[in-house]
Amino acid sequence: MVTAETLNYISQQLNIYWSLCMLIFGIIGACWNILIFRHYSLRSSSYCTYMLFVSIASLIHILFSLSDRVIDKGFKIHWTANSIGWCKIRYYFANCTSLITLSFLVLSAIDRLLSTCRQIKWRRLNSVYTARQICLFFIIFWMLITIPTLMYAKPIQFTSNRRLCSYSSKIWLKIMTYFFNLCCYGIFPWIFMSLFGYLTLKNIRKIRNRRIGTLPSVVFDFISQCSFIYNFEIR
């Protein structure tokens, strides 16, 4: 019969080995993406600029969020519950970098949409300079928005033998739960990415149909030119 101690032991081992594997491969993957998107052949692409910032933000998020999970759940070293400084820093960077990452993913989807537009005024927005300015704006924006995390995050004694890092303000806790966690993490990014992805696919199909539609006229012009040259040579 499986006891509670056995289940706790299995859960602890999974948190150690599975989370540790995710941590290692996540760091390697993020570093590899940074090296790829920093390549000189990709520096002129605004899309690669967004993905470079996504990789950097993801790396920071992994270091502050997943590493703490391995230490806390796997090795039972409760840094966030015992250190008020680490509790604030960990929550702040975890929330900030995750919001930045999702924002840049949405921006990369918008960038792909603009690159398929027929109007030149929209395609001109696909520049590395514009992408860097937008990325800088969103980094500063989310760093300022999540400042209350530094103010309200601290270790809280829930029970006599349980101490967790949480928010001391009930208002900010509700904002984090219903706005950030539900909307900013769950609903908005996937709606926007799906919408812009659909519009991009629609533009690509229009471009393909337009090219296919112009093919017969091009062939007709080529045949006309060939017949003209042939008649000219006969004369």
Counting H and I runs of at least 4 residues, what is the number of helices? 8
Number of strands: 2
Q: pLDDT average, as an integer?
A: 81
Beta content: 5-15%
Radius of gyration: 26 Å
Order of helices and strands: HHHHHHHEEH
Give the CATH architecture.
Up-down Bundle
The termini sit apart by 101 Å
Please estimate the helix content: over 70%
CATH topology term? Rhopdopsin 7-helix transmembrane proteins
CATH superfamily: Rhodopsin 7-helix transmembrane proteins
> How many distinct folded domains?
1
Nutshell version of this structure?
The protein is mainly α and 235 residues long. It is built from eight helices and two strands; from the N terminus they run αααααααββα.
